[in-house]
Amino acid sequence: MSRQYIDCREFPSAMNCSVALSAASDKELLEAAVQHAVAVQGRTDTPELRKQLASMFKQDTPPLTQAGMAGA
C-alpha cells in the first residue's frame, strides 16, 4: 500500500503553517487533515471541507523541504 500526504506548506496562509501529514489510507489521512484544519486553521468540519482536503492528497511522502520556503 502506498502512502499519501497533504502539505500545508503548499497553500499560503496567514499562519505560514509548516505541517505535512502522511498516512497509508485515505480515511486516516482525511481524519488527520480535518483535525488539523479545525484545531489549527480554524476551519469548520463540513462535507465541503472534507472534499476539498481529499482533492489535495498526493501520492508518496512529503518532501523534507518545500521550494520557496524561507529557511528551507
Summed up:
This protein is an alpha+beta fold. It has helices spanning 26-39, 47-55, and strands at 4-7, 20-23, 58-59. It has a domain at 4-46.
Task: Please tag this protein with its features.
72 residues; alpha+beta; 3-stranded antiparallel sheet; 3 strands; globular
SSE map:
Elements: E1 4-7, E2 20-23, H1 26-39, H2 47-55, E3 58-59
Antiparallel strand pairs: 1-2, 1-3
Helix pairs in contact: 1-2
Written description of the protein model:
This protein has 72 residues and is α+β, with helices and mostly antiparallel strands. The protein has a domain at 4-46. It is built from 2 helices and 3 strands; from the N terminus they run ββααβ. The chain has a 3-stranded antiparallel sheet with strand order 2-1-3, covered by helices on one side. α1 packs across α2 (47-55). It starts with a strand and ends in a 13-residue tail after the last strand. Mean pLDDT is 88; it is low at 68-72.
Kindly name the structural category: alpha+beta
Shape: globular
* Helix share, percent: 25-40%
Q: What is the straight-line distance between the termini? A: 29 Å
The unreliable regions are 68-72
Strand order in the sheet with the most strands: 2-1-3
Fraction of residues in β-strands: 5-15%
- Per DSSP, the total helix count is 2
- What is the average per-residue confidence, as pLDDT, rounded to a whole number? 88
Summarize the biggest pleated sheet: 3 strands, antiparallel
- By DSSP, the count of extended strands is 3
Order of secondary-structure elements = EEHHE
Rg from Cα: 12 Å
